[in-house]
Amino acid sequence: DMVCGHFYISLDSARRQELLTLFPLASCDKCRELLQRETPWRKDHGQELLTHICLEHPNKAPKIVPQWMRLAFKTITEAGLSFGFLELVEIHNRLLPILPPVSVNKNDSFREEMMRLKEQTDQVGELVKNKLEQIVAGPADSPGFGFAALAWSGARGSKQTRQLVGRRGVLDPGNTGFTYCPRDFFIPRSLVEGITVEKSFNAAMNARSSMVDKKLGTGRAGHLMRSLVLVLWDWKVRPGDCGRNDDIDRLLYGCQWRGEKRICAACYGLPAGYDSLPDGYPAGLIAAQSFGERGTQLSMQSFHTAERQLSIDDVTALLEGRDLANDSKNWFTDEQDVDGFIERIKKESGYRSLDERHLYLIWLAIHQSTGKTLTSAWEENRTPLSGLTGPGQELFLSTLLEMNEIECLSSPLARILTSRIPE
After folding, report:
1. Which residues contact 35 (CB under 8 A, 6 or more apart)?
2. How far is the C-alpha of 28 from the C-alpha of 192, rounded, in Å?
3. What is the CA radius of gyration of the chain?
4. Cα separations in angstroms, 223 against 2, 141, 289, 354
């Protein structure tokens, strides 16, 4: 709604003017340039505007963004965005004469056949995109404009629109207990057109695989988040300068205080919106949450095509020192591999925008462990708090009691975990 509402704002001069009044134009050339940019505006324009506001005007963002959101909702509601089945049929009928014929070579290997069908599927996607762009360029009351607006603005995925009015294309059935050919899971008809019983059954296998990915992946993502939090809980930023040679790039993993789970403010730098960092800034906890939350979203992806990104299992294996896409390489053994680790993670779209400081800190925490894995980092650096929240709480607590280390459980949270009233 926000994305498509922003698109509709750009079509209405009065609404654009209303949006202009929300932003600090008088003092910001970038705001002025963005809001006077050529229309219509798509999702990437809204993302660029939102990023600029959060980074350059953090004090005004809490007021501006909700007002912008309400204006987008109001605009799209009053525009009456809608579309009907017959409009989708009409778009499909316009596409039929230009859809490429299905080409399959029975002598192709599995991989060659899959790539051939994927290319044909992508080709149909481009044709659908071009047709919807033509509709968006026309009057807002033309048949199919609402559907085209959702797709072209970026409010809905291009694969969804292709499957509805173009061709479902090749689907990934996931793990199967039998050998299959990619053409068995290639559906040459659209959802509007209707598909055969056999192809519908095969498509259901794709849906089953997606549901299993979501259900099982969410639990794995939660475990990954928990492991990262336990490892990084104690990493803090402290005021001062570790004294590292200024001729060397100030990269977080090279801070001379790292042995004490500290990063000096000079090596960490200032996050957006901060003029200075408070003593004890929880850099580790923020890194764990930032990385782990993206893992949760990654696990919720449903794979409706033959394309598949890094799975949550792949991410976990990578942090355990087994990069399955690179001959099970352990990126945490050699300090020379740190930049390779950053580059490897950022190849995945879900992590591409992640602040590199978080990745450097995760790498450093794992690299400093003896086993050079996420698990070893947790096992070797358990604190009273992480020990109580991890597996084996009873054994960990009894060990503390035997060592008369109960004073280390004095924090309010630790007291609650040991069934005592916080002081």
Report:
1. 16, 19, 20, 23, 25, 49
2. 47
3. 26
4. 32, 50, 12, 20
Q: What is the C-alpha to C-alpha distance for residues 84 and 114, in angstroms, rounded to an integer?
A: 34
The tokens for 354 are 């992640």
Name, in order, each residue with C-beta under 8 angstroms of 331's C-beta and a sequence gap of 6 or more: 318, 321, 323, 337, 338, 340, 341, 344, 363
* Angstrom distance (rounded) from CA 288 to CA 231: 8
User: Which backbone phi and psi does 325 adopt, to 5 degrees?
Assistant: -85, -5
Place of tokens 């079509």: 11
pLDDT digits (tens), the chain, 423 positions: 999 999 999 999 999 999 988 887 767 889 889 999 999 999 999 999 999 998 888 888 999 999 999 999 999 999 999 999 999 999 999 999 999 988 888 888 888 898 899 999 999 999 999 999 999 999 988 889 999 999 999 998 888 899 999 999 998 887 788 888 888 899 999 999 999 999 999 888 888 877 777 777 777 788 888 889 888 988 999 999 998 866 556 778 889 999 889 999 999 998 877 888 999 999 999 999 999 988 777 766 654 444 445 677 888 899 999 998 888 999 999 999 999 999 999 887 778 889 999 999 999 999 999 999 999 998 787 665 666 665 667 777 777 667 665 556 666 666 766 677 776
Residue (of 84, 60, 81, 85) closest to 2 by Cα position: 81
Question: Do the beta carbons of residue 181 and residue 149 sit within 8 Å?
Answer: no
Residue closest to 94 by CA, chosen among 139, 157, 138, 143? 143
Sign of the CA dihedral with 340 first, then 342, 348, and 349 last? negative
Element (H or E) spanning 186, and its range?
Answer: strand 186-187
**Nearest-angstrom CA–CA distance, 183 and 123:** 16
User: Between vectors from CA 85 to CA 74 and to CA 44, what angle results, nearest 5°?
Assistant: 45
Residue 116's identity, in one-letter code, is R
CB atoms within 10 A of CB 387: 23
